[in-house]
Design brief:
Elements lengths: L2 E4 L34 E2 L22 E3 L5 E4 L14 E2 L6 H7 L11 H4 L8 E7 L10 E6 L6 E5 L2 E6 L6 E4 L9 E7 L2 H10 L33 E3 L2 E3 L9 E6 L2 E13 L3 E12 L3 H4 L4 E8 L5 E8 L5 E3 L4 E13 L15 E9 L2 E10 L4 E4 L12 H6 L7 E4 L2 E3 L1 E6 L11 H13 L4 E4 L8 H10 L2 E5 L12 H18 L5 E5 L4 H6 L2 H9 L1 H26 L5 E2 L19 E2 L21 E3 L8 H7 L10 H5 L8 H12 L6 H25 L6 E4 L22 H9 L3 E8 L2 E8 L6 E10 L4 E10 L4 E9 H5 L7 E8 L4 E8 L14 E6 L3 E7 L4 E7 L12 E3 L5 E6 L7 H7 L1 E3 L4
Parallel strand pairs: 26-27, 26-33, 27-28, 28-29, 29-30, 31-32
Antiparallel strand pairs: 1-38, 2-10, 3-14, 4-5, 4-6, 6-11, 7-10, 7-14, 8-9, 8-11, 12-13, 15-16, 16-20, 17-18, 17-21, 19-20, 21-22, 23-24, 24-25, 34-35, 35-38, 36-37, 36-39, 39-40, 41-42, 42-45, 43-44, 43-46
């Protein structure tokens, strides 16, 4: 019997249109727990990058930004010199950067990732540091009327001085800080000083003085702060710096984002927001909202009016719209900076617009909008940014009324379920992806190329969405630009990773609101961003974990105050910011959540984090019994490959219970290997040695997670997303990632690529039945054929059938339900397996192998795997074959950085499997590759 599950369209898929309100406000003074005054004007917009726009200007535009990255020095603050006399002298520093990487650069500390270094380096976060820069003002800037100093990110508590005068104090690593220095700069020998205070020692005395504490996530194992007075909740800096169950504790500090001088003599385009008023197949009607800063002397002295000219260039490089408009004489004055601002709205139109789609659903069409401000014929300011046209809706429709149960009263008591899914350009999209954590403990070490490789790896694995987790940081502009280009949707958390935060404190909340305004304004033009989410697991931490329950029991009045603060910050304040500045992107208050409506982490509504498998030690088969509306977290751990472990542990240290290995296993304070062994032993053989432990951990993770992914996809349209935890690593060690710290694919990433394929087979072996589904993301249906064979391990076909299949567009179709007893027909289930293949008239589209016993019970025979090489210049082809079944074959290439077209797969009897291997790095020959390459599989 065939049944179909198709994704239906909601009755209204329109983009919410919001009015952008640009707020010009000086920075709030910070009271309460922050006890400091911030004297800077917050930067309100994305920094301008000079475009290469051609114009008829008679004079070339002066660059409006001078990067201040070269020549920085650092030292320990003088009052902390005792015991650290080797750090009292100034040394060269890297900006953007962190104190840990500066110390490492000068060989003043050991590598933070190697051996037992973590415990030895905790002192770094307990002292203050000083940075300084001497610089000259470019000659071309000296005449500019307006000069601003801007820090795009300081981590975290800092005092900034220029030429001996205090400019500002900072307390939020996620904010930009800008201050007017027009009358404070000298032509030569300016001295810029930044003192970075210890985040722990800055906050700890204030927290200890509070009558009521807030519990955090992970207590420090190093005694630098009490368990009942953790500081991370109160500090606006990356939460993972305080340690997580996949990473170390390095409470670092630094000038971690760019520093620049912004100067102009006439005008500067500070902000541009392009709103979609109407979008259909024939016309895109847009409204561009500009905020243009003017020098104080501009209005009084200019002889010629200022004109704004705008060009829209399509993805093929053709100009499809031009418009010019005089700047209004109506200006506002920001009293904090004495800066004049002109606001202007300009209608734009694009005929036959091309839309941006997620990967697999269409092209990633990106327009370019180039804007110039001219004074007569002279270009005085310019700005260029990309534009992707798309609508986005979060589908929250209620389920159709269920049929009445025999007990009508029970039916009436049931609350209807509710959808949770993304609709892009009126097309329901099944979200396929993973959660993204920070790329490194020290983000300055990550290059754009490294970001691109991780994003490309996600794209290569057929992913179309990544969730940027709230315990890290907002990514830089390059990351979102590449996500736009690759068609990867972004679920963007605000930076709250868990625990309970003081939302009841007005100063804290205002600080967060300014952070949110800056980040949403900076990122609102990226079509890849399809959701802003208030936090990670803060709601469930309060409602379901011991954190909230203990507080509610011990102090109900304070607990009520905390919850009201939560509702204000995440239910109202951040929602308002997204509504005002997010250009129609939906807001969701937490993950998991039902958006503060009833129970969080519910399978019937909202998104779900499911950790009964792994966290609750339930068997992986339980994934088949959990069918949420959107699975935004689930995971199993695995260790990385041997070459990655070699980086932080010697061969003598590579044992499951060795202190160095335990130090790099953060789950349950180093006890996570016991949990790994629990899951390995449930389905696989006992590891024979440490290498076998690494291998089996990856096999277990891959097969467990892909079991869940396929179940989620087969459950469309009830389930509309499968996002496993986690994509990447922040340091080398055991974790839930599918890509290790060095970019190596684990078994899971290869298997996820198959599970996320546009059209695939799903075979669920549960309760004595094998249920087969065909799942497709394709926009149209097509005629296919399903072939299934029952075979023994030597390749003998014991039964075979063919089924014609009409694949279902954008949905899941149940094809057949097979009785395992009939398939086996009294044969030994330990020596028999089922092969399913889906094909069209010419091509094998997908295949699936089903076993009737756990891997540890299979009677696998010794396999003689034949290898045949063909060298093609830029790559080689390795043909593998075996007379008998080879279970989970892994091609190990040691430390060589080689890309394999496939890995970690079952090699069927008499099958010829061809693997393409990328050209080895310079200095490595193909002969060396042949010698170092090893095969590992369960038959051994």
């Amino acid at each position: 019997m065939t049944s179909c599950r198709r994704i239906g369209l909601s009755s209204s898929h329109t983009l919410i249109k919001l009015t952008l309100l640009v707020l010009l406000v000086p920075i709030m003074s910070i009271a309460s727990i922050f006890q400091a005054q911030a004297h800077a004007e917050p930067a309100r917009s994305k920094a301008i990058t000079q475009s290469s726009m051609k114009s008829q200007s008679t004079k070339q535009v002066d660059p409006q930004e001078q990067q201040l990255h070269t020549g920085w020095q650092f030292r320990i603050a003088p009052e902390f010199v005792q015991g650290h006399t080797d750090l009292q002298n100034w040394r060269t520093a890297q900006v953007p950067g962190h104190i840990h990487t500066d110390l490492l650069q000068h060989n003043l500390i050991q590598d933070p990732y190697v051996g037992m270094a973590e415990a030895d380096l905790q002192w770094i976060g307990k002292v203050d540091w000083e940075y300084q820069l001497r610089f000259d003002l470019d000659a071309s800037r000296q005449k500019h009327a307006k000069k601003f100093l801007q820090f795009d990110g300081i981590d975290t508590f800092a005092e900034v001085r220029l030429n001996g005068e205090k400019l500002m104090a900072t307390d939020n690593a996620f904010r930009s800080y800008q201050v007017d220095v027009s009358h404070k700069l000298k032509a030569r020998d300016n001295l810029l000083e930044v003192r970075l205070a210890s985040p722990i020692d800055t906050m700890l005395p204030r927290i200890l003085a509070m009558p009521h504490k807030l519990a955090g996530n992970y207590p420090s194992p190093y005694g630098d702060e009490p368990k009942d007075a953790m500081t991370a909740n109160f500090v606006r800096k990356p939460g993972y710096h305080y340690g997580w169950d996949w990473g170390p504790r390095y409470v670092t500090a630094g000038i971690w984002r760019p520093v620049k001088l912004i100067t102009y003599d006439v005008a500067r385009i500070e902000h541009l927001a392009i709103k979609q008023k109407n979008l259909n197949q024939t016309l895109a009607e847009l409204e561009a909202e500009f905020e243009i800063a003017l020098a104080p002397t501009t209005l009084a002295s200019r002889d010629q009016a200022l004109t704004l000219e705008v060009q829209v260039i399509d993805p093929d490089g053709r100009t499809v719209f031009t418009q010019a408009q005089a700047l209004s004489k109506d200006v506002s004055i920001n009293p904090s900076s004495n800066n004049l601002h002109s606001k202007l709205k300009m209608p734009l139109q694009i005929q036959k617009p091309r839309r941006w789609y997620p990967r697999g659903y269409g092209q990633q069409a990106l327009y370019k909008v180039k804007s110039v401000v001219k004074q007569g014929t002279v270009t005085v300011a310019e700005k260029s940014q990309s534009l992707g046209l798309r609508t986005v809706e979060l589908d929250r429709r209620l389920d159709e009324p269920a049929k009445a149960d025999a007990d009508l009263s029970q039916t009436l008591m049931k609350k209807p379920g509710q959808a949770f899914g993304f609709v892009i350009n009126s097309v329901p999209v099944f979200a396929k992806g993973a959660n993204l954590i920070p790329f490194d403990m020290f983000p300055n070490r990550i290059s754009v190329d490294q970001q691109r490789k991780i994003l490309q790896a996600a794209r290569d694995a057929n992913m179309n969405m990544l969730r940027i987790w709230g315990g890290g940081y907002y990514e830089n502009d390059d990351f979102y630009r590449m996500a736009d280009e690759m068609g990867i949707m972004i679920w963007q958390d605000f930076m709250f990773g868990g625990g309970v935060v003081p939302g009841y404190d007005d100063a804290f909340r205002q600080n967060v609101m300014e952070e949110a305004r800056q980040q949403v304004q900076r990122l609102n033009q990226h079509p890849s961003i399809v959701l802003w989410c208030g936090n990670n697991e803060e709601e469930t931490a309060w409602k379901d974990w011991g954190i909230g329950k203990e507080m509610q029991k011990a102090n109900p009045d304070f607990a009520h105050k905390v919850w009201r603060g939560y509702q204000q910050l995440f239910g109202k304040d951040l929602r308002q910011v997204v509504q005002e500045h997010g250009l129609g992107v939906p807001y969701w208050s937490s993950s998991p959540s039902n958006d503060l409506d009833d129970k969080a982490n519910d399978s019937e509504r909202g998104d779900k984090h499911y950790w009964e498998v792994w966290g609750g030690s339930k068997p992986v088969e339980e994934y088949l019994r959990e069918t949420p509306r959107f699975m935004s977290e689930f995971g199993l751990q695995a260790w990385p490959q041997r070459s990655t472990v070699d980086v932080f542990a010697s061969r003598e240290q590579q044992a499951i219970d060795h202190p160095v290995i335990r130090q790099h296993q953060k789950f349950m304070a180093g006890e996570g290997n016991a949990r790994l062994l629990h899951y390995i032993r449930a389905n696989y053989r006992e590891p024979r040695d440490f290498d076998d432990f690494l291998y089996l951990s990856q096999v277990m993770q891959a097969e467990g997670i892909t079991l869940a992914i396929k179940h989620h996809r087969a459950s469309m349209p009830r389930t509309m997303g499968s996002m496993y935890w986690q994509l990447n690593d922040a340091w080398p060690g055991a974790s839930w990632s599918s890509i290790d710290y060095f970019g190596n694919w684990k078994a899971l990433h290869y298997q996820a690529r198959k599970a996320f394929a546009p059209t695939t087979l799903v075979a669920e072996n549960l309760d004595g039945k094998t249920t087969v589904f065909v799942v497709s993301d394709e926009a149209s249906s097509r005629a296919l054929q399903l072939r299934w064979r029952v075979m023994d391990f030597d390749g003998k076909v014991l039964g075979e059938e063919y089924h014609p299949v009409q694949s279902f567009a954008l949905g899941s179709m149940k094809v057949v339900e097979l009785d395992n007893r009939k398939l086996l027909d009294k044969r030994d289930p330990r020596q028999t397996f089922l092969v399913l293949e889906l094909s069209d008239a010419k091509t094998l589209i997908a295949s699936e192998v089903v076993y009737f016993e756990a891997a540890k019970n299979l009677k696998l025979t010794n396999a003689d795997v034949k290898m045949r090489w063909r060298f093609k210049g830029e790559y080689a082809e390795l043909q593998l074959s075996s007379a008998t079944l080879v279970r989970m074959l892994s091609i190990e290439t040691d430390a060589l950085k080689l890309r394999l077209s496939d890995n970690y797969f079952d090699l069927l009897p008499q099958q010829n499997k061809v693997i393409r291997i990328s050209k080895p790095p310079a200095g490595v020959s193909w002969e060396q590759v042949r010698k170092q390459l090893k095969l590992r599989y369960m038959n051994q």
